Amino acid sequence: MPPELLRKGRLDEIFFVDLPTLRNRAEILMIHLARRKRTPSDFDIAAVAHATDGFSGAELEEVVVDSLYEAYSAIERELKTEHLLKAAKEIIPLSRSRAREIEKLRLWAADNCRLAAEVETAERGIESEGIAGRRARMVDL
User: What is the pTM for the complete model shown?
Assistant: First the structure.
């Protein structure tokens, strides 16, 4: 955008939304499973969230969609965690294929933007009580 549109008074802030954290990835996966009439608690969400480090929200949705196709082509036609993990391995996220551009954007954003989401400081585990409370709400979506 031209600088005159970015100045204070036109846009009050420029926000930077980074890739989802481990906790965010788990929540996004649960939302997309629930939207497709699957019960998130039936899956090892923590394992899939760990396997999808660097995935965007759209890429996480594709993990769920691709895994449903894989499950449908299987004999038992039941979605399992293994299908989600296989789909995650087959998708190459933009954070890997465009790593340089994303790093440049992060560096630029550090000095020019306000962070719009939590920052993952370390690979924290997914606290079971935090996810369990959200899981119940998301199944009802």
Answer: 0.77
